[in-house]
Design a protein that fits this description.
The protein is mostly helical. Helix content is 69%, strand content 2%.
């Protein structure tokens, strides 16, 4: 598949950078070993405390992030600070690009050992992003610094220069992250890049600022600056872990509520999970953002919860063939239940409006309606169910189903079957 090509290229580039860096470092030896050890320990501690991927109810994983900004802000800031370190306690440093990459890779791998032992290790993409980002920052800074190009920069101007290099590095990392995600999933590149860029002003700004301050402080006062400036990011990293745990618990609660219709015999087993997973894939194809995809996931999981109010269950839970008035009644009852669960008003609105005429529906409600109908029709149509169901949906685009959603569903199904 053509969308896999960036993955191969980025992994090959990162592997080449690491191999060349290790070879050069082993050949020349480690310069300023106490400094290299101090930064290595800092990066390893950052990796030790990072949160990892957790299962999502709708399929896939919920990741506390993976890369410069999300999962390991302490390790990211330490890596970038070492890449932009020109002096140590007033003395010029002599480490170069190769040593920066080697120390960062070794420390990242060392910090990942406990997670790997528990089967929670970061994916390879995490290290690829770290290597490419740190390598980019080091290549932009180290050779020019040692050649004296930055000598005429001093005081605030030098600090702004360091910050500018860090911002460029984070932006490049965002492009790499989006390219890796696109290669892994074949989801559209532009929405993925947009989501990455939206995260930059948050924790990304803290990483950039801390990395810059660390490099400047170590240049003046030495390695004592590292623990001082590490504490705020370490606390932030701990908060990220707690936040990831809360989100995982909330998703599990939503998934448990969604299973109520299955346990009560109103819908087939796994129906809500299948609708949620396919809805998210369609949402990705249509360019929804991460917050919008989260609302879509929760609404898709609970789209049938209104059936619990029925005295007589709908055969096989197939609401797509019910009269429109009955569909709307079930949808409104489902929205009322969702509001009582404490879910956001956006989720409740999607559940309530999934039976409205599609021109009046929000995008998420259009997606849930189409995917739910496809899942029900494909399930009951025999061996040729998927194709038959898709044709029925296309025939209904005149007034019942949103045409753009049906075509997005067709693209997703084609890609899942290896047609891309």
């Amino acid at each position: 598949m053509t969308c896999r090509r960036p993955l191969v290229a980025l992994h090959a580039t990162a592997a080449l950078v690491v191999a060349v860096s290790l070879f050069a470092t082993l050949r020349t030896g480690v310069q300023e070993r106490p400094v290299a050890l101090a930064f290595g320990v800092l990066i390893a501690v950052g990796e030790l405390t990072l949160p990892h991927a957790r299962p999502r109810p709708g399929g896939g994983t919920a990741v506390g992030g993976s890369g410069l900004r999300d999962t390991a802000p302490l390790g990211a800031a330490g890596s970038l600070s070492y890449a932009l370190l020109g002096e140590h306690a007033g003395q010029a440093s002599h480490h170069g690009v190769a040593q920066v990459v080697s120390v960062v890779v070794a420390a990242s791998l060392l910090g990942s050992v406990p997670h790997l032992a528990r089967g929670q290790g970061p994916v390879l993409d995490h290290l690829v992003r770290r290597v490419l980002a740190v390598g980019f920052a080091a290549v932009c800074f180290q050779p020019l610094y040692h050649l004296g190009v930055f000598d005429r920069w001093s005081g605030p101007a030098y600090a702004l220069l360091v910050l500018a290099l860090l911002v460029l590095t984070v932006l490049c990392d965002a492009v790499v992250a989006a390219a890796l995600a696109h290669s892994r999933t074949c989801w559209p590149f532009a929405p993925l890049l947009r989501d990455e860029l939206r995260s930059v002003p948050g924790i990304g700004s803290a990483v950039c600022a801390t990395g810059a301050v660390m490099a400047l402080a170590v240049a003046v006062v030495g390695l004592w600056a590292l623990p001082v400036f590490s504490v705020p990011l370490l606390l932030t990293q701990y908060s990220l872990r707690r936040y990831a745990a809360v989100r995982a618990t909330y998703r599990q609660t939503i998934a448990s509520l969604a299973r109520a219709t299955e346990i009560a015999g109103y819908t087939p087993a796994g129906h809500a999970r299948r609708v949620a997973a396919l809805s998210q894939a369609v949402g990705r194809d249509l360019g929804l953002t991460e917050p919008e995809l989260t609302v879509l996931e929760y609404a898709a999981l609970m789209h049938d919860i209104g059936q619990l109010s029925l005295v007589d269950p709908v055969p096989a839970g197939a609401t797509a063939d019910l009269p429109v008035a009955e569909q709307r009644r079930i949808a409104l009852l489902g929205g009322a239940v969702v509001r009582q669960t404490g879910a956001s008003a956006q989720v409740a609105t999607v559940v309530e409006r999934q039976a409205d005429p599609y021109p009046e529906q929000p995008v998420a409600a259009r997606i849930v309606r189409v995917v739910n109908a496809y899942e029900e029709k494909a399930r009951d149509a025999g061996p040729g169910g998927p194709l038959t169901a898709l044709e029925e949906l296309r025939l209904g685009t005149g007034g019942e189903y949103a045409p753009e959603v049906v075509e997005a569903l067709a693209r997703v199904l084609w890609n899942e079957r290896g047609g891309a």
